[in-house]
Design a protein that fits this description.
The chain starts with 7 loop residues before the first helix and ends with a helix. It has two domains: about 60 residues, no CATH class; about 80 residues, Retrovirus capsid C-terminal domain (Non-ribosomal Peptide Synthetase Peptidyl Carrier Protein, Chain A). By secondary structure, it is mainly α. The chain is elongated, with a radius of gyration of 26 Å. The chain has seven helices and no strands.
């Protein structure tokens, strides 16, 4: 069981006598959170001076709120991005770039290492990248673009007619 996020003072506070819980529309994470807060405040206007009650009751109006919390990812998150065996190289590069774009202040040297590490060891691009020294992320993506063109031409030649 998790510990309450409230202080002991709030946790132990009792509602005023004859308090009836007003009806609230639960916040499900799919609407404007500011609008939900304004609705809550206007409904609880009679109790606005009772901070403990305001906190405890507000928590009951939240059905889901985690989708509005931004989870900050760091550059090392990119080591979780792997090329799937049946995935086209173009799609892997696109997916990797999308994940990188979500990271504020992403370190390009870490991103470059993660991009390479996400490739299977037997992939021709992996072999070429490992042979080059001081390969920047931009150069890695440029090399990947060349391999994508080669990969697509190779697939087109092997396709049944």
């Amino acid at each position: 069981m998790s510990k309450s996020p409230f202080t002991d003072e709030i946790e132990q506070a009792k509602p005023p006598g004859k308090f009836n819980l007003p009806h609230f529309t639960s916040f499900k994470g799919d609407k404007d959170p500011d609008r939900h807060l304004k609705h809550y405040r206007s409904t609880m206007v009679l109790y606005r001076n009772n901070d403990a009650l305001m906190c405890k009751i507000f928590a009951t109006t939240l059905q889901e709120y985690s989708s509005y919390r931004s989870i900050k990812k760091k550059s090392d998150h990119l080591f979780n991005v792997k090329k799937n065996p049946k995935e086209l190289l173009r799609d892997y590069v696109k997916r990797f770039k999308a994940e990188k774009a979500k990271i504020v202040g992403c370190d390009d040297s870490i991103a470059s290492a993660a991009f390479q590490k996400g490739l299977p060891a037997d992939h021709p691009l992996f072999g070429e990248m490992i042979m080059k020294e001081d390969l920047t992320l931009a150069n890695s993506f440029a090399l990947a673009d060349k391999h994508t063109l080669w990969d697509e031409a190779w697939r087109a030649d092997k396709a049944p007619e």
